[in-house]
């Protein structure tokens, strides 16, 4: 008697093995399953070999066989790496919190994300592996990490790392954001504190700047009126405003792109009413030459 057929069954598919007359062995070239074996029980595909002779006798071996089972465990590894994506802060975000919460996702649709490989690097510091919250999803993890040491104002870069259970490392993923916790500088040159004038027009001038995010606007408001925007050129500003009779509060507000605000106020009094004389008395009058006399003036000013 002789062997009639030899077949291999893998992942529900059956393949015929042909006799190699040179080696005397049965062979077949088989395309591996399209999915990783990591998610399967034991992390392998069971390979079942069935041999049938001309008389109809058959022998079956698979991964459970005591002698040959270890050789019938097909390990298939995926070739697609996980995908890492930063969700917050978003790319080029401008934030005012120096200890932000970093959130990101790691996804892999085959062998799955190995949570032990998830890490986060901020700027060029040592990768962070502890303190990361990892919430499992259907195809990976939602991750978050709260920065514990305040970051300096300026630009920062987040870099993510992770791998799947088949050892494929996620492609480099990074995101850049800017922290701005310092409000703009604002110095008012004119008017001076407590300035009193008889002119209805008043010049408001000074300097302002914001190093980190840049200046967004500078507005000037008199009393409860509408704030007027003033042009800033090379850090300098000047604008004429109209005063009301009596005390005026001039509010100058500088706002940077991050929304941080600096406010300076000046109290200015407009007085357009001249003094009023009531009575003037010269005593004595007439007065002898070379003699001291006294002038008494009754004058008021509203």
Task: Characterize the structure shown.
The structure is a single chain. The chain has about 300 residues and is mostly beta strands. It has three domains: about 5-75, Sandwich (Immunoglobulin-like); about 85-180, Immunoglobulin-like (Sandwich); about 185-270, Immunoglobulins (Immunoglobulin-like, Sandwich), CATH 2.60.40. It has strands at about 5-10, 15-20, 25, 45-55, 60, 75, 85-90, 95, 100-105, 115-120, 135, 140-145, 155-165, 175-180, 185-190, 195, 200-210, 215-220, 230, 230-235, 235-240, 245-255, 260-270, 275-285, 295-300. The strands form six sheets. Strands 1, 2, 3, 4, 5 and 6 form a six-stranded antiparallel beta sheet that branches. It has a five-stranded mixed beta sheet with strand order 16-23-22-18-19, with no helix packed on it. Strands 7-9-12-11 form a four-stranded antiparallel beta sheet, with no helix packed on it. The radius of gyration is 43 Å and the shape is rod-shaped. The termini are far apart. This is Bacterial Ig-like domain-containing protein. Pfam families: Big_13, Glucodextran_B. It comes from Murimonas intestini.
Keywords for this entry:
single chain, 302 residues, 54% strand, Immunoglobulin-like, 6-stranded antiparallel beta sheet, 5-stranded mixed beta sheet, mainly beta, 3 domains
Instruction: Tally the beta strands.
Output: 25
CATH topology descriptor of the largest domain? Immunoglobulin-like
The domain tally reads 3
Identify the overall geometry: rod-shaped
The CATH first-level class of the largest domain comes to Mainly Beta
**What is the terminal-to-terminal distance?**
132 Å
Point out poorly predicted stretches.
none
Any guess at the CATH architecture of the largest domain?
A: Sandwich
Residues in helix, %: under 10%
SS field, number of helical segments = 0
| Mean pLDDT, all residues | 96
Largest sheet properties:
6 strands, antiparallel
List SSEs in N-to-C order.
EEEEEEEEEEEEEEEEEEEEEEEEE
Give Rg in angstroms. 43 Å
Structural class: mainly beta
Strand coverage percent: over 45%
């Amino acid at each position: 008697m002789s062997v009639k057929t030899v077949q291999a069954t893998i992942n529900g598919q059956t393949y015929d093995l042909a006799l190699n007359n040179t080696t005397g062995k049965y062979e077949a070239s088989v395309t591996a399953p399209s999915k990783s074996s990591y998610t399967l029980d034991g992390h392998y595909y069971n390979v079942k070999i069935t041999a049938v002779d001309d008389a109809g006798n058959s022998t079956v071996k698979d991964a459970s066989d005591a002698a040959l089972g270890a050789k019938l465990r097909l390990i298939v590894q995926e070739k697609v790496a996980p995908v890492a994506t930063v969700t917050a802060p978003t790319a080029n975000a401008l934030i005012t919190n120096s200890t932000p919460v970093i959130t990101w996702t790691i996804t892999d649709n085959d062998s799955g994300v190995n949570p032990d490989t998830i890490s986060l690097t901020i700027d060029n510091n040592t990768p962070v592996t502890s303190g990361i919250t990892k919430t499992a999803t259907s195809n990976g993890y939602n991750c978050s990490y709260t920065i514990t040491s305040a970051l300096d104002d300026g630009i920062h870069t987040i870099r993510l790392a992770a791998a799947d259970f088949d050892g494929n490392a996620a492609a480099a993923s990074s995101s850049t954001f800017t922290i701005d916790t310092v409000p703009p500088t604002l110095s008012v040159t004119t008017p001076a504190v407590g300035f009193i004038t008889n002119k209805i027009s008043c010049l408001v001038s000074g300097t302002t700047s914001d190093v980190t995010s840049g200046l967004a606007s500078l507005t000037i408001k008199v009393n409860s009126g509408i704030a007027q925007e003033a042009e800033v050129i090379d850090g300098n500003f000047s604008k004429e405003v109209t005063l009301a009779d009596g005390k005026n509060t001039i509010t100058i507000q500088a706002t940077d792109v991050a929304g941080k605000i600096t406010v300076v106020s000046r109290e200015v009094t407009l007085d357009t009413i001249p003094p009023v004389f009531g009575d003037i008395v010269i005593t004595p009058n007439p007065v002898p030459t070379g003699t001291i006399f006294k002038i008494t003036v009754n004058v008021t000013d509203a």
